[in-house]
């Protein structure tokens, strides 16, 4: 595991973007797993800059997002489809046919989850998976007490996640209670993992993830067992580490 501690959010975003960019440059048809939330926004901006400077070509890249709220369509501004399109995809030359995000309005959850897993298999697996981390230790929407062996599946969102994500909605009542998420098994199969975290409110979970027991109570603790993980933290998120 490689841990990089940087001064601030801007530096984390630049470092993360360079890692993603190097994958795309070395393997133009890379499959990249993507996250939403506040943390990777700066990385997306930095990648857009690199694209505008003609360092990277996304035309052969395939992406797989970690998750989507159940019941939100792609036109809904709170959906992760909408977030990804507006914050990243519309600014680069990715083919929208190569973009994969679980479909929150699917008729059959089981079919949608199977389809998603098959699609990942079809491209030969995920080369690099970008992750954020929830204050409760979730990665994707794999909430505490999830089964480590789960693949893409429907999840019930934890109270802490609903509270944390309510900042994106008009009221907490509007936050969906369910989501479709890649499972821990899907995430752990990625050849490389890049986890990003910033801010004081992540410090405790970062410490627990790295030094605590490997337990479904803290889903991100499983990353201790992945053979190729890079983590980038700002000073505040890393403040409890030695
Ligand atoms: C997002 C996701 C979540 C977030 C996590 C941190 O697709 O899967 O696990 O990465 O909730 O969110 P932020 O970055 O908003 O603190």
What is the top-level CATH class? Alpha Beta
Strand order in space, largest sheet: 1-10-9-6-2-3-5
Shape: globular
First and last CA, distance: 16 Å
Number of strands: 10
CATH-defined architecture = 3-Layer(aba) Sandwich
State the helical fraction. Answer: 25-40%
- Bound small molecules, which ones? fructose -6-phosphate
Mean pLDDT: 97
Low-confidence stretches: none
Q: In words, what does this structure look like?
A:
Belongs to the glucosamine/galactosamine-6-phosphate isomerase family. NagB subfamily. Catalyzes the reversible isomerization-deamination of glucosamine 6-phosphate (GlcN6P) to form fructose 6-phosphate (Fru6P) and ammonium ion. With 242 residues, the chain is an alpha/beta fold. The chain has one domain (2-234): 3-Layer(aba) Sandwich (Rossmann fold). Helices cover 30% and strands 17% of the residues. It has seven helices and ten strands. A seven-stranded parallel β-sheet has the order 1-10-9-6-2-3-5, with helices on both faces. Strands 4-8-7 form a three-stranded antiparallel β-sheet, with helices on one face. Helix 7 (203-211) links the parallel strand 9 (192-197) and strand 10 (229-234). Helix 1 (9-26) packs across helix 2 (41-52). The chain is globular. The two termini are 16 Å apart. The structure holds fructose -6-phosphate. The site of fructose -6-phosphate has 14 residues, from loops.
Outline the fold blueprint:
Elements: E1 2-6, H1 9-26, E2 31-34, H2 41-52, E3 62-65, E4 67-69, H3 80-87, E5 99-100, H4 109-122, E6 128-131, E7 153-156, H5 159-165, E8 178-181, H6 184-188, E9 192-197, H7 203-211, E10 229-234
Parallel strand pairs: 1-10, 2-3, 2-6, 3-5, 6-9, 9-10
Antiparallel strand pairs: 4-8, 7-8
Bound molecules: fructose -6-phosphate.
Fructose -6-phosphate (F6R) binds next to loops.
């Amino acid at each position: 595991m490689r841990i990089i501690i940087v001064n601030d959010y801007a530096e984390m975003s630049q470092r993360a973007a360079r890692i993603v960019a190097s994958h795309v440059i070395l393997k133009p048809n890379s499959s990249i797993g993507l996250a939403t939330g506040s943390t990777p926004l700066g990385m997306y901006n930095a990648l857009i800059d690199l694209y505008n400077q003609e360092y990277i070509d996304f035309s052969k890249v395939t992406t797989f997002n970690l998750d989507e709220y159940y019941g939100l369509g792609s036109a809904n501004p709170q959906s992760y489809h909408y977030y990804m399109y507006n914050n990243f995809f519309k600014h680069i030359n990715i083919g929208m046919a190569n973009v994969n995000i679980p479909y929150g309005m699917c008729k059959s959850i089981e079919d949608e989850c199977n389809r998603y897993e098959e699609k990942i298999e079809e491209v030969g697996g995920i080369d690099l998976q970008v992750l954020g981390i929830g204050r409760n230790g979730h990665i994707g929407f794999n909430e505490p007490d999830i089964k480590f062996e789960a693949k893409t599946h429907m999840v019930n969102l934890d109270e802490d996640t609903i509270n944390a994500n309510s900042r994106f909605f008009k009221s907490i009542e509007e936050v969906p209670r369910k989501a479709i998420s890649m499972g821990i098994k899907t995430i752990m199969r990625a050849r490389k993992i890049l986890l990003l975290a910033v801010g004081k409110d992540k410090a405790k979970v970062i410490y627990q993830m790295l030094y605590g027991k490997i337990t479904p109570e803290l889903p991100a603790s499983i990353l201790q067992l992945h053979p190729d993980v890079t983590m980038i933290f700002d000073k505040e998120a890393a403040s409890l580490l030695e």
